[in-house]
Design goal:
With 158 residues, the chain is mainly alpha-helical. 67% of the residues lie in helices and 8% in strands. It starts with 7 loop residues before the first helix and ends in an 8-residue tail after the last helix.
């Protein structure tokens, strides 16, 4: 089912939203290429961040938070475990359930990625005037908060 937009104001709003989406994709690509983090795919990296925020976490909850099917997340979790980024433990309350947590290597990987990404963003923000920097910081926070509020699963600590 397609949505036909007749109102010019609606068309402009859609163009603005599409431009923001494209810009976020461009930023993501630039971050990945600049930081040289080719060890993990974007889906693996996202899962690792989510595990860090919510560990210990069941694979099914991780799949829900990442908005993918459980079998897909099982494969991602297995690959992270194989790479030594996460460890699997048994739930103390239900021995049939396994829980994921970061390994020391996973924690170190995230710390390094976070430092590199923060440095890149700091350099970009330093290139802006003070008013532009404050505008970007406020706008990004507002956009992130609004997008998260519109999604069914809230991210803790963001």
């Amino acid at each position: 089912m397609s949505h036909i937009v007749d109102d010019p104001a609606d068309t402009m709003a859609l163009r603005g939203a599409a431009a923001i989406h494209r810009d976020l994709i461009r930023i993501g690509r630039a971050v990945r290429s600049t930081t040289g983090d080719n060890l993990l795919s974007p889906s693996q990296m996202s899962a690792l961040w989510t595990i860090a925020q919510h560990a210990p976490i069941r694979v099914t909850e991780l799949a829900d938070r990442e908005r993918v099917a459980a079998p897909t997340m099982s494969r991602v979790a297995a690959s992270l475990e194989h790479l030594g980024m996460v460890v699997r433990t048994t739930d103390a309350h239900d021995g049939r359930v396994s829980l994921l947590a970061l390994s020391d290597a996973g924690s170190a990987h995230l710390a390094g990625a976070s430092s590199r990404n923060s440095a890149l963003f700091e350099s970009a923000l330093d290139a802006l005037t003070d008013p532009d920097r404050r505008c970007v910081e406020r706008s990004m926070r507002l956009l992130a908060d609004t997008v998260c509020a519109l999604t069914p699963i809230q991210q803790k600590g963001t």
